[in-house]
Amino acid sequence: MKTFNLKFSFHIDRDSFLSLNWRIFIITAILGFLLSFVSHLSIKLPIISPLSYANRQDVFVSILPKLEKIPNQFSLHKKTTLIAKSYAGSTTEYDKAASYIAVNYDTGEIIASKNSDQKLPIASITKIATAVTALDLADSTELFTASSIAASEIPTKIGLVPGQKLTLSELLHALLLTSANDAAQMIREGIDEKYSSDVFIKAMNAKAKFLGLKNTSFANPQGFDSKNNYSTVEDLAILTHYALNNYPLISEIVKKDYAFLEKNANHKQYDLYNWNGLLGVYPNIEGVKIGNTDKAGKTTAVVSQRNGKKIIAILLGAPGVLERDLWTAQLLDYSFSENFGLNEVGITEDNLRAKYSTWRYWN
After folding, report:
1. What is the reported pLDDT for 155?
2. Catalytic residue among 127, 157, 207, 298
3. What is the pLDDT, as a whole number, of residue 205?
């Protein structure tokens, strides 16, 4: 067997060695300078300041008293029997909805319901909570500025222009009448800017907890579909009553069929239509809010007063606008008849189509 001896030699002359050391020294010095510079910047940037989280917590704690200033004294209770009678000699049409509830506004007694405690997407009925939370944290005359993010919101919008300013009252008109998603975003950003912290969504959820809405969660101010944006018709009935009973501006706005914001130094003019098809069709309707998303379907929350008696009706998961409004009218008819012995109004599809035809941008 042959043996192989391999020898390797490695030789660096003195000049090369010194040159290599200098290169290492220079590179090390440069890296050290860069690390020192970046470290200096990180101290100066507030976005990563170690105190920022604690500050945000302190800000939120400071606004809790504003959210809890007006207590909720309204609750629901069930009748001994909750059996919806047949409507027009057959199964009630509104029973095709995913969920509904009719409640005596004054007593909280549930007159009729289906899946009343089932968590469901609620679409723009969310905006009732948006309005309530906003009025807790800001005055109606405060000016908010439209950002490019707010102006780009879709699909329902009033066409905000970045840089324009609107008062909270003007934004609430857009929010509750036209269901403007850009207005909802502008409110959220305005409140967050006012408190220098991302507090608005957290405040919406704190408000829901304070009101005792045990099956409600908010993920955005618009009502966009999200696994964390849901409620039940029971919770929504309580929220609706609370909003109308304690916030005169909300109660005033939702009764309107239309509002016009004149052009001024702060913004262009805006035509604000209320897309609630029962306004001016069913007797003495007060809004309150309609909604529509892919997962929620068509939704609505309304209050009607007849002969001094008021009923809250919430309906979720209708397949179309016509069904939403027709079924809600039927639910109100049943409730007024069952609870107060009043005659049914009998709203028809033709009545509703006539109303829809008055909407300028209706297709």
Report:
1. 86
2. 127
3. 98
Architecture, CATH, for domain 76-356: 3-Layer(aba) Sandwich (3.40)
Annotated catalytic residue 39: no
| SS3 category, 288 | strand
CA dist 315 and 94 (Å) reads: 8
Give pLDDT, residue 208. Answer: 98
Q: Which residue is associated with the tokens 């003019």?
A: 269
Helices 200-210 and 181-194: angle between axes, nearest 10 degrees: 90
179 is catalytic: yes
At residue 47, the pLDDT reads 38
Number of H helices, E strands in the chain: 11, 10
CA proximity to 274, closest of 290, 294, 251: 290
The question of whether 127 is a catalytic residue gets the answer yes
Domain coordinates of the chain in residue numbers?
76-356
For 26, 148, 159, 258, 267, the CA distances from 271, given in Å and listed in that order, are: 67, 21, 10, 8, 13
Per the confidence metrics, is the pTM higher than 0.85? Answer: no
- The per-residue pLDDT of the chain, averaged, comes to 87
pLDDT at 352 over 90: yes
pLDDT of 326 > 60? The answer is yes
The amino acid sitting at 226 is S
> Nearest 10 degrees: CA dihedral of 230, 295, 92, 349?
120
- Provide the pLDDT for residue 114: 97
Torsions phi, psi of 163, nearest 5? 95, -20
Q: Report the C-alpha gap between 46 and 117 in whole angstroms.
A: 44
pLDDT interval class at 2 (50, 70, 90): very low
**Catalytic: which of 99, 113, 116, 124?**
124
